[in-house]
């Protein structure tokens, strides 16, 4: 069995976009699980994504008490044999792999956000680090982005970074 993931972070609705981009809603309709690494800003985004499918998410530094009361700071789940952890912030990019190996020794995949910069690396201990960027605020990146991936038989496969057009 395989589980298809939509991986998003830093949606910042309504600050960076008035509504969730159509590309995010469309991608969510084609997956089994939506993973959100924080900075939703409005609980309406969580509500909307929950109507589209199961959500594994965390709160970020821009999320208020309404989201913090519904979401953990760190989320963990085992999905098709892959031990997944989700957190909003991992600190500076320099030394990230070593820090995350130490912080998440029992995970196979760590999804994070905060920087709005897409990231896909593997640590020395084999932990896959994924940051989908932001579908609403590209900052210094060439485009807004989200990721999709498939988890199956203890493997992380088909990780794809997708550009998101602003509606």
Mean pLDDT: 96
- Major β-sheet, in short? 5 strands, mixed
Termini separation (Å)? 34 Å
Shape: globular
Q: What's the total count of β strands?
A: 10
Number of helices, counting only DSSP H or I runs of 4 residues or more? 4
Order of helices and strands: EHEHEHEEHEEEEE
Helix content: 10-25%
The parts where pLDDT drops under 50 for at least 5 residues are: none
Report strand %.
25-35%
Q: Order of strands side by side in the largest beta sheet?
A: 3-2-1-9-10
Global structural class: alpha/beta
Radius of gyration: 14 Å
Helix and strand arrangement:
Elements: E1 2-8, H1 22-29, E2 33-36, H2 43-52, E3 55-57, H3 65-68, E4 74-79, E5 82-87, H4 96-103, E6 109-111, E7 119-122, E8 128-131, E9 144-152, E10 155-164
Parallel strand pairs: 1-2, 2-3, 5-6, 6-8
Antiparallel strand pairs: 1-9, 4-5, 7-8, 9-10
Note down, in words, how this protein is organized:
18% of the residues lie in helices and 34% in strands. The protein is an alpha/beta fold. It has a five-stranded mixed sheet with strand order 3-2-1-9-10, with helices on one face. The longest helix is centred in the first third of the chain and has 10 residues, at 43-52. The mean pLDDT is 96.
Features:
167 residues; alpha/beta; five-stranded mixed sheet; 4 helices
């Amino acid at each position: 069995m395989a589980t298809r993931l939509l991986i998003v972070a830093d949606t910042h609705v309504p600050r960076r976009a008035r509504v969730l981009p159509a590309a995010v809603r469309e991608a969510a309709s084609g997956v089994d699980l939506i993973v959100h690494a924080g900075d939703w800003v409005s609980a309406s985004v969580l509500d909307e994504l929950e109507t589209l499918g199961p959500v594994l998410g965390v709160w970020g530094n821009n999320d208020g008490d309404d989201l913090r009361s519904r979401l953990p700071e760190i989320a963990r789940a085992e999905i098709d044999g892959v031990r997944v952890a989700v957190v909003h912030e991992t600190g500076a990019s320099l030394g990230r792999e070593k820090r995350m190996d130490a912080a998440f020794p029992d995970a196979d995949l760590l999804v994070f956000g905060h920087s709005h910069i897409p990231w896909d690396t593997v640590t020395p201990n084999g932990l896959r680090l994924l940051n989908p960027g932001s579908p609403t605020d590209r900052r210094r990146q060439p485009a807004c982005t989200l990721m999709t991936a498939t988890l199956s038989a203890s493997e992380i496969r088909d990780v794809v970074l997708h550009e998101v057009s602003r509606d």
